[in-house]
Recover the amino acids of this structure.
């Protein structure tokens, strides 16, 4: 389902399971953060290279505790300084990829960074939610766990 301007906003909890199918991530826990402008994805390692004259980034990540490590490559759509919640600024590569959550799929820009030690490997920022989603900060996992590629049923949502 794609969202349209006339569709009502879809409520998300303060944390949700999301999928990034363009990166072969069937399910990853994300903190839904309307205070963050951009979305961020934890990567274990990243490297830059040039493909057909354009800048690309290769990266490796493990989307969950028992998940297999995934290696990806994507064109860099932007590169800019991002200030984290601790006030530290770093230059980050941004990639564009489909996001799937709550039955909605849309393209988002996401920056790649080291979120080691954070409770959530992904941060879903307000630019990815604009005009489609709203956040209910009193609830979490409103849409259950995204069904894995194995066809397992979604986990029952918790509040």
């Amino acid at each position: 389902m794609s969202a349209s301007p006339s569709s009502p906003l879809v409520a998300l909890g303060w944390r949700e399971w999301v999928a990034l199918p363009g990166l072969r991530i069937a399910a990853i826990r994300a903190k839904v953060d309307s205070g963050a402008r951009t979305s961020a994805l934890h990567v274990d390692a990243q490297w830059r290279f040039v493909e057909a004259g354009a800048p690309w980034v290769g990266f490796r990540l493990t989307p969950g505790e028992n998940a297999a490590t995934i290696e990806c490559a994507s064109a860099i759509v932007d590169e800019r300084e991002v200030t984290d919640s601790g006030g530290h600024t770093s230059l980050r590569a941004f990639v564009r990829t489909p996001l799937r959550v709550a039955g909605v799929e849309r393209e988002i820009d996401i920056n790649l960074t080291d979120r080691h030690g954070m409770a959530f490997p992904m941060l879903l920022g307000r630019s990815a939610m604009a005009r489609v989603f709203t956040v209910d900060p009193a609830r979490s996992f409103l849409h259950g766990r995204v069904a894995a590629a194995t066809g397992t049923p979604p986990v029952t949502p918790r509040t």
Residues 10-133 form a domain with the Cathepsin D, subunit A; domain 1 fold (CATH 2.40.70.10). The radius of gyration is 15 Å. The first helix runs from residue 126 to 129.
